[in-house]
Amino acid sequence: MNAEYVVLVERSETGFGAYLPDLPGCVAVGETREETVQLIREAIELHMEGLREAGEHIPPPTSTAESVVVHIAI
Q1: Are 51 and 44 in contact (CB under 8 A)?
Q2: Which residues contact 4 (CB under 8 A, 6 or more apart)?
Q3: Cβ contacts of residue 63 below 8 Å, gap of 6+?
Q4: Which of 5, 15, 28, 46 can pair with 40 through a Cys bridge, CB separation 3.0 to 4.6 Å?
């Protein structure tokens, strides 16, 4: 089964971090955006495997994301 989750990727002083609103505690950090996305993909798979092994419910994807353009007066 495939599911599509919103992953938030943020830049930090030392690289990037990623997390999912729908999977609390599932996070990843890396030096590059590409590395971080790969690591969060692996973290999601491990997180879900742990949920299944514990007999817990896998939360369905419910979050959505929008980019909003705003005018900033200078």
Answers
A1: no
A2: 61
A3: 5, 6, 20, 21, 22
A4: 28
Residue 3: which residues within 8 A CB-CB, separation 6 or more? 60, 61
Cα(first)–Cα(last) distance of the chain, in Å? Answer: 49
Q: What is the pLDDT of residue 44?
A: 97
Q: Is 19 helix (H, G, I), strand (E, B) or coil?
A: strand
Q: Are 51 and 58 in contact (CB under 8 A)?
A: yes
Q: Is the pLDDT of residue 1 over 90?
A: no
Distance CA 30, CA 18 (A): 9
Tens digit of pLDDT for each residue in 8-65?
999 999 999 999 999 999 999 999 999 999 999 999 999 999 999 999 999 999 999 9
Q: How many residues does the chain have?
A: 74
